[in-house]
Amino acid sequence: MKHQAPASRRVRREEARRQDAWPRLPVQSAARPLISGRKLRTLEGARVSERGLGRGRPMRTTRIRMAGWMGCASVAALLSAAPALAQETVSTAPAASQASPSDVIADNQVETVIVTGQRAALKSAQQIKRGADTIVDSITASDIGSFPDKSVAEALQRVPGVTVNRYASTSDTTHFSAEPSGVIVRGLSQVRSEFNGRDTFSANSSRGLSWGDVSPELMGGVDTYKNQTAELIEGGIAGTVDLKTRLPFDSAGRVIGITTSLNYGTLSEQVTPEVSAIYANRWATEIGEFGLMVNGAHSELNTISESSQFGRMGIFKDVTMFGGGTKYIPAWYRLAHTEFDRTRNGVAAAGQWRDNDQKFLATVQFNKSSYENIWHERSVQGSAFSLYNRGPHFEITNADANTYVLPAPGTTFKFDDEGNFESGIMTSPLGWVGNTTSASNDWAGYLIGQTSTGEPVIEPCYGWTGRTDCAPEQRGGELSATTRYNYNKQTTQDLGFNLKWDPTDRLRFNFDVQKVKAKLSNYDADVGLVSYANLNIDATGDHPVMTVLPGTNINYAPGGLANPNAWRFNNVNNHLERSEGDQFAARIDVQYDLGDGWLDSLKVGARHADREQTVRWSVYNWGGIANAWGCDQGGGGVNSTDYLWYNVDRTAPAANVNGDCAAGNPTTTFSGWDRNLPDVRSFNDIFGGDVLKTGMLTFASMDFVKDLEKFQKAFGYSNTGVGSSRWEAVCYRAGETNCFLPQEITDVSEKTNAAYFMLKFGGRDHTIGGFGISGNIGLRYVETQNESSGSLVHADFGKNDVRVCQPRGRPMGPDGLPISGAYVPQSLWCYLSADDKAFTDGLASASTVRQKHHNVLPSFNLKIDLNDEWQLRLAASRAMSRPDIGYLKNYVQVNMAGPDMNNVNDPLWVKDSAGNITGANLRYTAESYNPYLKPMTADQIDISLEHYFAEVGSFSLAVFYKKFNDYIQYGGFNQDVTVNGVTRTVFTRGPVNGDGAKIRGAEAAYQRYFDFLPAPFDGFGIQANFTYVENKGITNSNLSNASGGGGSNTSGGGLSQADGAVQVDSLEGLSKYAYNLVGMYEKGRWAVRAAYNWRSKYLLTAMDCCLAFPIWQDDAGYLDASVRYRASDNLEISLQGSNLLNTESVLKQQVNDASAGGLLKDNAWNRTDKRYLLTFRFKY
After folding, report:
1. Per residue in 336-379, pLDDT tens?
2. In a domain, 456, yes or no
3. What is the DSSP letter of 579?
4. Going by C-beta distance under 8 Å and a sequence separation of 6 or more, which residues neighbour residue 966?
5. Cα separation of 619 and 401, whole Å?
6. Which of 154, 299, 498, 1052 makes an SS bond possible with 149, Cβ 3.0 to 4.6 Å?
7. What residue spans carry the region label Disordered (predicted)?
8. Is residue 552 a part of any domain in this protein?
9. Considering its fold, how many domains does the chain have in total?
């Protein structure tokens, strides 16, 4: 006899199956295992299907369940592209092909009041959170459209526990971004990104998505998962963010919407367009129902970012000319103006089919996001001294102070009570500016550079010359003007197919396949020009002010700094990245409903993913051109020829110059600088014209910087014949293949296989002690197979010594005489073993590393219904996160060190019993990445108390705790390397799996509309949330996931973390406190919203790229607001504003160790546009 489900269960399933024919709210992800016949528990009993959002059942409530609510709310939510603010009366009659609503309710026409706009968005998000299987926070499309958030990252910062990074790169604090560039969940950056429940990623060295790539206009919703269930795809140790696009069956019928906007920035003073459109429809046929949805978006944004920045603080100890004590003087002051031209395009298309028997639902989805961002940047920097390559605790004493910085003649520096520099005119020590071999001090032809009038650029006022016509022995500081261009384009697209099949009322299948492709192209170039001037800096106001004065002992041609003759090409740099990645993934999920007992359903599934990623990332190819410290002309009686090419305006060719800066080697030919290279312009209007006071300045023309071919022709040594470092641009260097050197390429493939089971239990009818109990328990098994292809560069003995066995004479002692006693009588080669000789051949070989990892991830989620409004959650799981793609790079360059040839007692010598040297050992080391890295794991627990007291009214309080294992950080490890059949142990520094640590915190959230107030005040509402996060022992990784070589360690200012750094006691990106406060009003045709986001100070980077010090961002808050007016049923007009407080990002530099107090000093003040967006939304 065929088994029959209990009658009550059969009725409930049939009702749910017919409801599944109704349109869904736009929160589903087709790839997620949508199980028809299940109802998400909501305030009205409406069903929202979602993987990880729970089985749910209609709750115990005295409210009327509104049949057909789901279809009506779906229409309203989908039309958030053109949201209506009115209340409407609609018919809930289904399409002809669907089951009659009389099977669901007695009356097939129910008059329903639809809540749209902000209320609908918050209501939907609240329902998702309440019915979820684990800890989830959601944003719906209306919520994104309710305030001026023009990126997904901007929207996510409103979610409890989520903060964003506003810098182009965390290690480069000189480039403040107009739009957020990164997302951090609960203080951690290992956030997994999904598109419709499937993998999505950018083709860079990280693992996830660049959040700016995605058009927010395409989003139907965004879910943030903060804990795990067994069915969730692994990878989000911090959390998982799922971006969801709309589907055809989200609407009851045809939908057409068009949105046009005009964007204006107060700094850029540019108006840029935005446009998006959606078309969706569904058709009933004899073979079932079909649906089609096409959504497209185009956005252009022109914004300005401006920066006022101090360089690394010089610490002067007990310097007499500064009044003794400890004084802090910045090495430089920089002003930067960056214009961002961002273009973003997105397409989301979907087709759906459902058979008439409601057994099959097929969905195909295509999504493509294209992001292009172009920088045009100019900066001016005044520098009196340099701390490049100085140790992290370097201090300048009285004996050395006058070799670093000097007040201008007749002036002094002023300091505050804490020793901070307040004001003064900075100059530099004279340094080397030329030489003479003439007893009469004839300097003609021996100087580094000359003006067009024949005078030396810098007067050689050396005290030892006896000159009386100039004094003192100092000069103006360096004034640099830099032009930078950056082009970045990223594209991510995926094609997915999903099939849901319900063969019986208990058994359900979900099949899903996906192909995702990503590409990235980045070109970055800059040119720095240098002249000289006295630098009058006043730091007593809100921002430091720099006045440029004529330089001490500096000669200028007519026009001064406005004359290109006063400038030289100091340095040039370019960088290129061309990367791509693709992945194929397939999964199957099976669910079987067990009955009406405690055990609700059993779900099992498996997933396979195959990812290939190639990252081609060149070094930042920096080189010197006409910098004084790179040359040694004028010595040895050879006349200097620098003056022929030193100045920017030297356009005439010249033969027999010493263009490669080799003393006594004037054999190169200078082609002459292109006469169009100089770009003379004013820079005084930066920061409103209040921080820089000077005349016209000379920059390099942007036209040359942004064109790679013109760039090489203008500055490449092979074209110009000059340059202290013989610089050639990327794509023109020796040894390249398609613009990249072998060490600049990362080639990684990754195959993952996963299987899981998840048992759901309980429900509203199953209680313990009178409380409803439900939840799930499960286990996910994951296998990760990595393969990283690259190269091994063998140790090269020839770099250190000669590959010849020959006798050695006695070394010379300090007195200049041969030493007595024992010494090493032969060259090192004589003592090496045959194996070491074979191992150190200096060649290179291909290398492939294969590694397999296994992880078991249990999860448990429990929900306790305390009453009709209160519920308590417990979520416990183990999560994992795989290493960034860049960390798996396989490139190793082995270095060797032998014993000290002048020390017979060096322990690397091998001696016989008589003490005679008979052999030698070599020590092998390397700096590299680590393809053997294991995934990180975390054991995590969340406890959440939630109160739902209205349709849009809730309070939640959650605490969380994570304990990490195998946390990735910089360290050392031994690896066996085989060359020519010889294996040696190489001590390698790079990414390693380190010790575990902990993070913990709490989140509180509250929202409601004040419906209890009399009209019109009942339209007011509020949202508020607060986050507290505390790090307990997690150390910063001190790693960079992108490198043009084998070195993975973060570095800056000529230093590396491996060589020592200022000690910090905080995790990068972690704010201890953060909160959001949102005020809302929605009534009739009007809707208003003001949103304030604040976070406390946090460590931006443990080692800045340019200062070598840790950099902190001070606490900051941002205010955004919007006003919307529904002019008619088809037209809505809105005005949105962002950054309305003109908030500045204020940075501090940490000048000593945390254990010594972690003293913070001024570093930078960054600002960007206040933006306004005028929008017209049409719907039909």
Report:
1. 999 999 999 999 999 999 999 999 999 999 999 999 999 999 99
2. yes
3. E
4. 934, 935, 936, 937, 993, 994, 996
5. 35
6. 154
7. 1-20
8. yes
9. 1
